[in-house]
Amino acid sequence: MLSPSTAGLMALSCAIVLLMPGPTNTLLAAAGLRQGVRRSAHLTAAELAGYLVSISLWGICFTHASHSMSWLPKLLRVASSLYLAWLAIRLWLTADSVASSATGVVGVRALFCATVLNPKATLFAGSIFPPTAFSSPATWLAAMTIFTVLLIPIGLAWIAIGAAPRNGRMPSIRPALVQHCAAVVVATFSVSLMWPLVR
After folding, report:
1. In terms of Cα–Cα distance, which of 139, 153, 142, 134 is closest to 54?
2. Three-state SS at 102
3. What letter would DSSP give residue 170?
4. Residue 99: count of CB within 10 angstroms of its CB
């Protein structure tokens, strides 16, 4: 099990990283913009599922197979970059239809895949979660419980941020402009992932 000091430090670190802008948070905000808070709230479950899968796989990889699978981080970096680039293009091309369309580019599958490929998962698995979380089921459950309690309200907050222009709280900002900005942010993350491999 986690000691109180370990649990507190992990909770603080998780909260900081989850609050940071990134591809998943950008997509949550884009969903809030297009569909509103109520119709997008379920996407936090897709985010949680994506992180559970990715953090667990990365943790097992770091713990048991880091030496024999040295190629895996590069492969995942390329896959993440390409997927985020595809999402950025879709966000950009559908931005002008935000106000009139009831369907969105950000669905459960897209958000789950983007979260599985989110580079933040490697940070959680390699630095923030205690190493024992990937060798002890009880510690894994305790760590994931802390993570879940933090992720859901933070994910909802990002959806609410995206929904603010839609709800008239920021009337001077056009929804299409917000989605174009979201596309640029996601594209920037895509380039930042690929850049170390091509320079």
Report:
1. 134
2. coil
3. S
4. 12
Question: Distance from CA of residue 21 to its chain's centroid?
Answer: 9
Average pLDDT over residues 147-162: 94
- Reported for 3-8, long-range contacts at CB under 8 A and 24+ positions apart, including other chains, are 6/130, 7/142, 7/146
Among the listed residues 23, 44, 54, the one whose alpha carbon sits nearest the alpha carbon of residue 125: 54
Please, is 196 exposed, middle or buried when counting C-beta atoms within 10 Å of its C-beta (0-12, 13-18, 19+)? exposed
How far from 141 is each of 12, 15, 191, CA to CA, in Å? 18, 18, 34
- Please give the structure tokens belonging to residue 158: 């990002």
CA distance readout (Å), 102 to 149, 157, 162, 181: 30, 22, 16, 20
- Token representation of residue 46: 């897709």
Question: What is the rounded distance in angstroms from the CA atom of residue 189 to the CA atom of residue 173?
Answer: 23
Q: pLDDT tens, 84-120? A: 788 788 878 877 665 444 445 678 998 999 899 888 8
| Alpha helices (H) along 20-136 | 23-40, 43-64, 72-93, 108-116, 120-123
Alpha-carbon Rg for the chain, nearest whole angstrom, is 17
